[in-house]
Amino acid sequence: MELILIKDVEKLGFADDVVNVRPGFGLNYLIPQGFAVAKSDGNLAQLSGRVKAREKREAKLLEQFNEISARLQSATIKIGAKVGTTGKIFGSVSVYHVAEAIKNQLQVEVDRRKIKITEGEVKQLGTYTAEVGLGASHKVTVTFEVVAE
């Protein structure tokens, strides 16, 4: 069953993508929840209009993305954590902490759901990297350092 996505669906696609899914998933979840519409001539015409409008908006936003990505790549973000005597932190540093640190230190608002820590769990002091998604095709690698509070 072919559908046109209205909203981003994790592990399936981004808004305005045409995807092929199983009929039960499409009819019982995607369409009733408002994530997708059936592929038809009328919906394809609306899709082309939305794509043209999005391309105009993205052309304007491209300059802002470049500025934000330059700021994110050049800065090392420091995240404070409570530490035991062995250098191991209490709990772990998550994407929430990375998003808050970026917001507080660089004054850039990023969606925490679009951040992925490349090393997995962060449970020790040190320097790590995370991948921050600024849009459908814009990703930036950010370096952050976990320091003792």
Structure description:
The structure is a single chain. This protein folds into 2 domains: 2-64, Ribosomal protein L9, N-terminal domain (Ribosomal Protein L9, domain 1), CATH 3.40.5; 65-148, Ribosomal Protein L9, domain 2. The strands form 3 sheets. A 4-stranded mixed β-sheet has the order 4-9-8-6. It has a 3-stranded antiparallel β-sheet with strand order 2-1-3, with helices on one face. By secondary structure, it is of the alpha+beta class. The protein is 36% helix and 31% strand. The protein has helices at residues 23-30, 41-74, 95-106; strands spanning 2-5, 18-20, 36-38, 76-81, 88-93, 115-117, 122-124, 126-133, 139-148. It is built from 3 helices and 9 strands, in the order E-E-H-E-H-E-E-H-E-E-E-E.
What does this entry show, briefly?
This protein has helices at residues 23-30, 41-74, 95-106, and strands spanning 2-5, 18-20, 36-38, 76-81, 88-93, 115-117, 122-124, 126-133, 139-148. With 149 residues, it is an alpha+beta fold. It has 2 domains: 2-64, Ribosomal Protein L9, domain 1 (3-Layer(aba) Sandwich), CATH 3.40.5; 65-148, Ribosomal protein L9, C-terminal domain (Ribosomal Protein L9, domain 2), CATH 3.10.430.100.
